[in-house]
Design a protein that fits this description.
By secondary structure, the protein is mostly helical. The chain has one domain: Glycosyltransferase, CATH 1.50.10. About 50% of the residues lie in helices and about 5% in strands. The longest helix has 22 residues.
Length: about 375
Amino acid sequence: MHVLNRKYNEFSTSWRAFLRRWFSKDKTFDGAARDICAAIIGQTWNGRFYQTGLGHFDFFWARDFGTVARSLVALGHREGMHATIRWALEHYKEAGYVALCLTSEGIGFDEPFPSSDALAWFLHSVRVAEFPLSSEDRTFLQNDVRRFCDQFLDAETGLVREYEKIAELRDAVHYRRSAYSVTILALLCRELGLLDIPVPELLKRNYVEILKRDYWNGEYFDADFGVHAWSSEANLFPFWLGFIEDNEMHGKVIETISRKGLTDPYPIRYTDSPESFSYYAWERYFMPNYQGTTLWTWLGAIYLQVLYQANHVEFGSEYEKFIKLIEEHHNFPEMLNTDGSWYKTLFYRAEEGMLWAAIFLEIPSGTYFLKMRKESLESSIK
């Protein structure tokens, strides 16, 4: 049944995306960047749950929801968060597991393959929203953790099994035990502990040390165990989620981003070496460069938060670039071409009005940040 749901809904989403490519126009929003983002967030709330986008992604996506959870709480949307989590939990119980996606009717499915990060991100959203779990909820989630371990993890290493088709954040790439997947296992363990849900023996490993030992190349984290190349999600999430607090490593990652020109013209490209990766057929033929050198607003907003959290000197200029991106398109698009134009192919047009706008909106304005930084420097001189 899960396979049938996935195939049906994957086809439905693809067909609607194709129709939208040719027979609809992107919405536009008036005002400054932060006004645009606030308007988008308001429209992604559909009265039952926060949907991922305002076009063909009008369903619940556990990964996307998890990444914006902290931001939505900070922006005062806890009530909508709780309603979304309750709605999702009830439908997950019907599906029998925490699926990556839920349609507006509550049908669970994974896209484009079984998801190795949906459970961790959903638990993260439950925890940061301080959602009250019932005993029934806890039993369901505890059982799903066991399902996750059986389905995805190697019994010897405790890592995601290699060479299988698994949906991660960069789902167009066929990874071999990615750095992102190791970070997600660290996230899963942390959230289970904070939610007081038992951690299986197979997950009782120091994933942060594994990440540093097996993936750090002296300048940044390699994308996966066999690809010694840059991928933005591999290098942003360990810092953004608070697992890596080493200032030297953080500085080298920011230097690498600058040296590779990954924020030109806007933050941030997935990679500067797309040829280093193995892509699934749908990316090669129907959506070329979908997750290659394209600019992704999701990762761009997370990059801004990483800079802001570190009080990094690059924050002000990168923040201004992002304002220009939003105001130029009067929207918060899914992704852009390398020249900053809206991504379009024969079969696909990048989604509009992404819920990810909450990540950007959570950050205090660049002007405010620079003012505080200037005052801090002046006071330290005195």
